Amino acid sequence: MTYAFFLGCTIPARLRQYEISARAILSRLGVGVVDYREFSCCGYPLRNVDRKAFLLSAARNLAIAERDGCDVLSLCKCGFGTLKEAQYRLRNDEDTRRDINRILEPKGLEYRGRTQVKHLLSVLYDDVGLGVLKQHIKKAFKNLNVAAHYGCHALRPSRVTQFDDPVAPTLFDALVEVTGAESVDWSEKLSCCGAPLMGVNDRLSMNLTQKKFRSSTEAGADYLCTACPYCQIQFDQVRGAPAGRNDGMDGPPAILYPQLLGLSMGMDKRDLGLNGNQPAMDAI
């Protein structure tokens, strides 16, 4: 079981602990990953600016993995959703696919649509399986309440991503509970974290995050659990905003899913990059 490891742009630059913890748990589970220096941006920043450039960027990455017969494993939900959307569009638009391949041809690449794109959570749930994960649990959590934050890009549009039921998803909850923790029900479970608005309308962005904090706190969550770099960064930076900017709203700390899983597998905190979280995870 080996995948082309797609990190995207944000994780290597701003959230190394996501990569560190993912590599650690995948290695322990016997899941192989191949690193491609040729991989570049998924194309997301261009999606609403230049459709052709967006599709070309995504198709190039997919063609690289396809060349070696690898499916893609994305840690970033934005990258996952973008690559899935590109696949969907190219599958249903033969003229555009032909045009994109004309540009890729001088590089020795061709996109044929044979490579699958999967998110880390999908690989753990569908390919590794809950039964195998349970066999690796060494220190099951007790009396730990976790609010699973699904995020937006993996769930919608569901006909494109095919990740889970966009209205009543259960995949992430099941993965949280395999660690022994309880995945709590909370009203803002499927709402946006607010990250897309940061830098455009900071006040609205922080308000959306504060709603998430309030809802998870009211549900009794000890931690928010994420599997998207943008969401993790958003929770950290809003919680750490100077007094007067965040209206004093402080929510549960956010932990990345591979960190939560790794801890329950008995792995060392340093090997999971927990010192990079804000705040650093010392108590869990």
Topology (elements, then pairings):
Blueprint: E1 2-6, H1 10-14, H2 16-28, E2 32-35, H3 51-67, E3 71-74, H4 77-91, H5 94-104, E4 117-119, H6 120-128, H7 130-135, E5 145-148, H8 158-161, H9 171-177, E6 182-183, H10 202-218, E7 223-226, H11 229-239, E8 254-256, H12 257-264
Parallel strand pairs: 1-2, 1-3, 3-4, 5-6, 5-7, 7-8
List keywords for this structure.
four-stranded parallel sheet; 2 domains; 12 helices; Glutathione S-transferase Yfyf (Class Pi), Chain A, domain 2; globular; 284 residues; 43% helix; 8 strands; Rossmann fold; single chain; alpha/beta
In CATH terms, what is the fold-level topology of the largest domain?
Answer: Rossmann fold
Shape type: globular
What is the CATH C level class of the largest domain, in words? Alpha Beta
Number of strands: 8
Into which percentage range does the β-strand content fall? Answer: 5-15%
Strand order of the largest sheet: 2-1-3-4
Our Rg estimate from Cα atoms comes to 19 Å
* Known CATH architecture of the largest domain: 3-Layer(aba) Sandwich
Q: What is the number of independent domains? A: 2
Low-confidence sequence ranges = none
Overall mean pLDDT score? Answer: 95
Number of helices: 12
Distance between the termini: 31 Å
Structural class: alpha/beta
Summarize the biggest pleated sheet: 4 strands, parallel
The H-and-E topology, N to C, reads as EHHEHEHHEHHEHHEHEHEH
